Amino acid sequence: MVRLRPYREEDLRQLLKVEEESFPPGQRYSAETFHYLMSLRGSFTVVAEEDGIVVGYVIGYMEGRGVGHVASLAVRKAYRRRGVGTALMLEAERLLREEGAVVIRLEVSASNGAAQALYVKLGYRPAARLPGYYAGREDGVLMIKALA
User: Which residues form the domain of 124?
Assistant: First the structure.
């Protein structure tokens, strides 16, 4: 059974494995990037864990007054389409709302239809195309959700 919990420093190695399995080179976060994101105001990292194995995570932070940002969401391939991503996103929204977010932003690869479908299902709407957003090679899509 997958459960959500706050990130612990000893999770970093497993987080990097999830990252490697989920994103192509040029789109993966490094340990340094994770540490930077975790240092931002109102930041959080939640992991999805099963039997001591980190199978997914979400990281977010407050970007500005009333604006939350989901910086990254990833779920290991074997755990996709099982509600893990949805559970992580709902927890991220709850945490950002607690920090005062009234709007949440995120970026997603233009070629990642599965992730875009998840975000649309959760009420996010495409707001802008971001040419060359990922390492100058792949476009991104900015998606926004207004919280009720």
Answer: 3-146
* Cβ contact 70:106 at 8 Å: yes
Number of residues written out for the chain: 148
List the CATH number of the domain containing 85: 3.40.630.30
Please state, in angstroms and rounded to a whole number, the distance separating the CA atoms of residues 110 and 124.
14
Q: Tokens for 56?
A: 């997914």
Q: How many CB atoms lie within 10 A of CB 129?
A: 11
User: Whole-model pTM?
Assistant: 0.93
Tokens 């957003």: give the residue. Answer: 133
How does pLDDT run across 90-112, given as a tens digit for each residue? Answer: 999 999 999 999 999 999 999 99
CA distance 16 to 28: 8
